[in-house]
């Protein structure tokens, strides 16, 4: 009986080893591949330690089959990730300032983004829509988006503009769709009206405006939090990297702080 038990045990162990050896190696997800892509500049990849793109997008429930809207992509830091992450499976809209033909920040920003999108085939499926601050804008066809994202923009739009953007996002989203917000967080101890040009925005006000637009707050995250940031700097948030507006003045101090303390909020329609 003892010999039989030993033989059976050996057979089970051998079978387990064979099963383990035969287990398929899990391929990197399309998001993982996009983040690791050689098409991303080393300068942009260096900021992953502060921006946590994988963790942030997964917190918002990102999936490669989704229809995603990125509001004001700017230089395209997140577009470099989102475009290849949905290519062939989902859809990416870049809701950006229109090019009015004028020589100003808004038109020039759109031109730079268009140039970037034309520079590589990976961006061939990205569709741009017109976003006009403080005016009703169709970020994407009504009720078609699964996920609307805004990264560090609320301070530009202030209170009235942010409410309008949240209303636009609500219109673009499907029922059950998600609005993901990342923004420089103003401490509760600061007065918003006195510091609204600092680049920081109150978390409580963000939630209030989103609720007013019809959203429900699902969850908050400290993925992009930075306890070293006091949010009280000579040149506002731009004192910190990557801008370092003071140049070499106290540069090591601000590099040690790192990028800003940021709220990360998930709302649902």
Q: Can you walk me through this structure?
A:
Mean pLDDT is 92; it is low at 3-15. This protein has helices spanning 2-22, 30-36, 42-45, 48-51, 53-59, 79-86, 105-118, 154-172, 192-195, 203-212, 251-257; strands spanning 67-71, 91-96, 127-130, 145-151, 173-186, 201-202, 216-221, 262-268. It is an alpha/beta fold and 269 residues long. It has one domain: Rossmann fold, CATH 3.40.50. Helix 2 (30-36) runs antiparallel to helix 6 and helix 8 (154-172) runs parallel beside helix 10 (203-212). The chain is globular and about 45 Å long. Helices cover 39% and strands 19% of the residues. The termini are far apart.
In brief, what are we looking at here?
The chain has 269 residues and is an alpha/beta fold. Helix content is 39%, strand content 19%.
Helices, strands, pairings?
Blueprint: H1 2-22, H2 30-36, H3 42-45, H4 48-51, H5 53-59, E1 67-71, H6 79-86, E2 91-96, H7 105-118, E3 127-130, E4 145-151, H8 154-172, E5 173-186, H9 192-195, E6 201-202, H10 203-212, E7 216-221, H11 251-257, E8 262-268
Parallel strand pairs: 1-2, 1-4, 2-3, 4-5, 5-6
Antiparallel strand pairs: 5-8, 7-8
Helix pairs in contact: 2-6, 8-10
CATH superfamily: Vaccinia Virus protein VP39
Q: Detail the poorly predicted runs.
A: 3-15
Could you say what the CATH topology is called? Answer: Rossmann fold
Question: Which structural class do the helices and strands define?
Answer: alpha/beta
Count helical runs. 11
Number of domains: 1
> What is the average per-residue confidence, as pLDDT, rounded to a whole number?
92
Major sheet details = 8 strands, mixed
Shape: globular
Could you say what the CATH architecture is?
A: 3-Layer(aba) Sandwich
For the record, give the distance between the C-alpha atoms at the N and C termini, rounded to a whole number.
Answer: 65 Å
Q: Provide the helix percentage.
A: 25-40%
N-to-C series of helices and strands: HHHHHEHEHEEHEHEHEHE
Indicate the CATH class: Alpha Beta
- In percent terms, what proportion of residues is strand? 15-25%
Write down how many β-strands occur, each being a DSSP E stretch of 2 or more residues: 8
Whole-angstrom Rg: 23 Å
């Amino acid at each position: 009986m003892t010999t039989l038990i030993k033989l059976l045990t050996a057979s089970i162990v051998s079978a387990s080893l064979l099963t383990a050896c035969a287990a398929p190696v899990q391929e990197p997800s399309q998001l993982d591949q996009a983040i690791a892509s050689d098409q991303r500049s080393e300068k942009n990849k260096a900021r992953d330690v502060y921006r946590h793109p994988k963790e942030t997008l997964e917190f918002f429930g990102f999936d490669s089959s989704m229809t995603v809207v990125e509001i004001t992509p700017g230089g395209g830091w997140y577009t470099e990730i989102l475009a290849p992450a949905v290519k062939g499976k989902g859809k990416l809209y870049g809701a950006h300032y229109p090019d009015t033909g004028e020589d100003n920040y808004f038109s020039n920003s759109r031109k730079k983004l268009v140039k970037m999108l034309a520079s590589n085939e990976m961006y061939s499926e990205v569709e741009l829509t017109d976003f006009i601050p403080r005016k009703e804008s169709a970020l994407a066809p009504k009720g078609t988006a699964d996920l609307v994202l805004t990264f560090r923009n609320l301070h530009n739009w202030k209170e009235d503009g942010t409410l309008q953007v949240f209303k636009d996002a609500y219109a673009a989203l499907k029922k059950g769709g998600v609005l993901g917000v990342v923004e420089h967080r103003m401490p509760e101890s600061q007065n918003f009206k006195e510091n609204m040009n600092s680049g920081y925005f109150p978390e409580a006000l963000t939630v209030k405006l989103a609720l007013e637009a019809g959203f429900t707050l699902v969850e908050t995250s400290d993925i992009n939090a930075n306890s070293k940031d006091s949010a009280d700097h000579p040149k506002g948030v731009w004192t910190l990297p990557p801008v370092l507006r003071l140049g070499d003045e106290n540069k090591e101090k601000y590099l040690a702080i790192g990028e800003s303390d940021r709220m990360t909020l998930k709302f649902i329609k």
